[in-house]
Amino acid sequence: MGLKLSRRQFVGSTAALSLSAVIPRSLLAASSATQRFVLRTDAAIGVVRPEFHSHFAEHLGSCVYGGLWVGKKSPIPNIEGYRKQAIEYLRELGVPVLRWPGGCYADDYHWRDGIGPAEQRPKRVNIHWGGYVEDGSFGTHEFIGLCRLIGSDPYLAGNVGSGSPRELRDWIEYCNMPSGSTLAEERIKNGVAEPFRVRYWGVGNENWGCGGWMRPEVYANLYRQFSVYLREYGGTKPFLVASGPNGNDRKWTRGFMDTLEGGVPGGLSMHYYENGPDRATEFSADHVDQQLSIFKRVEEAVMEQRALLDSYRDGNKVGLILDEWGVWDKIPPEDEKRYGKLWMQSTMRSAVAAGLGLNIFNRQADKLFMCNIAQIVNVLQSLLLTDGPDGKSCIRTTTYYAFALFKPHRSKTAVRVETQDASPLALSTSASKAQNELVITFVNPRHDTDLEIDCTIQGTTAREAKAQILHDPDWNACNTFENPNRVAPQPYPVAVEGSKLRLDLPRLSIATVTLKTA
Ligand code: AHR
After folding, report:
1. What's the burial of 372, exposed, middle or buried (CB within 10 Å: 0-12/13-18/19+)?
2. Which residues of 395-422 are buried (b: 16+ CB within 10 A; e: fewer)?
3. Which residue has the higher pLDDT, 421 or 139?
4. Are the C-beta atoms of 262 and 222 separated by less than 8 Å?
């Protein structure tokens, strides 16, 4: 790292910090490389929809029960049954949309099991996630209550695999009809006079797999049938999300679109997980490289699925939704036994993976509609972890902090960044602008190379800059119940002068720079 900056070149709140005070000596001695690129503020891509930073909660392990919902009588501090600490953290971050109740669980969920007096709700076996008995105490009203508390737009995933058009149409009427019909009156009797006004409705989930193991033509015919009955009530027009491909499966999307022959859905749900062969906290260096380098495929999938949809009549009206995404590492049975099914730690590597994904969404802002990471609490690449369903501790993961570093991009216009290096583990960047403000995020996915960033800003000049970094040279570093803030964002020095921006970006880091522009 050879960045020599005079004091005058430092601008903004971090001006007093010297680089050597922030970057450990060992890192300064490490392998380093210079990355030059051009930021084109004159080349707009599209709006960074806040919905790119949305989430997913399934009845799986300790995500809902014990994670988000502890019940009103719990000794764990709660707000009307919702885990208080989780609510506070999620509110602070902002969760634009929350998808529920699955996942695979959605196609075996019957919404009537989750309404009415809790003690009268039937007990059902969760066949997908361990065969435990669900008491249905977290149902539609509790989910909507959660969304209201954290300020999210609710997204309900309907049952196609084992449900019927009638069941799904009734759920919509129950939620959205203001009054007068038997279903609306039932909602009112259950305590909520105002309609829930739920806009987003999933028409099944992974219907190529756990949602009925269908061929795309079979699912498309069912989609056509269901969509006839899924209507507007009280002025809330449902935005229907059809079950889309597993990764970049073009055969599924083609089969679906060919069979539709018109009448396109509002959105198509693509799922894309990056598997990890090791336990989250025990990754080998080779496996870090392997997992982070395949992230490029997500970007290819977004571009190719978008192009495929656009090749159909009215296909450009279908919003591409990355409905489930993130890393899915090896999960040891002892962790699941202790904390719940699919409970997984998030490390510095996971945060970098999240950063790679979020940068892709900015760069492809014109091609995406919504993205929901899997999942919000305790399951897979979660934002929060609790020490089991009965544990009192609730901590923010490295992935939570990766999302926090991208928050300044929300609702801004993504602009092009021209880089030199297109290799799989290259520096990842994205930028967005609003009046007098420019936000840039850099992700260094290399575990052995620090980078000197040399950026030319085209189309505007910068007056003032500040930066935040999430970094740990140990890719297995994580936040734990004993040390909950080991990996958290820190202020970081950045130099700007006119159209030049320079920053030292250590290995395995995410840095967001906010510039005031002329
Ligand atoms: O997120 C866990 C599971 O992954 C979901 O239930 C399913 O949709 C996907 O296969």
Report:
1. buried
2. bbbbbbbbbbbbebbbebbbbbbeeeee
3. 139
4. no
Find the 151 Cα to ligand 1 centroid distance in Å: 24
325: Cα separation from own chain's centroid: 7
For 187, the token pair is 């909602």
Cβ atoms 153, 238 nearer than 8 A: no
CB-facing half-sphere around the CA of 163: CA atoms within 13 A: 30
pLDDT digits (tens, 9 = 90+) for 401-417: 999 999 999 999 999 99
Q: Which residues contact 164 (CB under 8 A, 6 or more apart)?
A: none
d(CA 447, CA 395): 25
Contact 444, 506 (CB under 8 A): yes
The residue whose CA has the least distance to atom 4 of ligand 1 is 103
Q: How far apart are CA 429 and CA 457, in angstroms?
A: 13
DSSP codes joined into one string, 184-233 = HHHHHHTT--S-----EEEE-S-TTTTTT---HHHHHHHHHHHHHH---B
Atom of ligand 1 lying closest to residue 209 CA: 10
C-alpha–C-alpha distance, residues 98 and 376, integer Å? 9
Half-sphere exposure of 409 (CA within 13 A, CB side): 33
pLDDT digits 0-9 by tens, 187-234: 999 999 999 999 999 999 999 999 999 999 999 999 999 999 999 999
* Three-point CA angle 167, 168, 174, nearest 5°: 90
Atom of ligand 1 nearest to the CA of 105: 6
By the 8 A CB rule, do 484 and 472 touch?
Answer: no
3-state DSSP helix/strand/coil percent for the chain, to nearest 5?
Answer: 30, 30, 40
Contacts of 96 (CB under 8 A, 6+ apart): 49, 50, 51, 53, 54, 152, 153, 410
CA dihedral over 95, 99, 101, 102, signed as positive or negative: negative
Distance, CA of 442 to CA of 427 (rounded, Å): 7
The pTM of the full predicted model, rounded to 2 decimals, is 0.94
Pocket test for ligand 1, best of 58, 329, 331 (most atoms within 8 A of CB): 58
Q: Which of 58, 173, 206, 274 is catalytic?
A: 206
Which residues form ligand 1's pocket by a CB distance below 6 Å?
58, 102-104, 205-206, 324, 374-375, 380
Residue type, 74: S
Query: 135 φ, ψ to 5°?
Result: -100, 0
Residues 252, 309 contacting (CB under 8 angstroms): no
Segment 494-518, tens digit of pLDDT: 999 999 999 999 999 999 999 999 8
**What's the angle, vertex CA 393, arms to CA 391 and CA 394, rounded to 5?**
115
Residue 206 known to be catalytic: yes
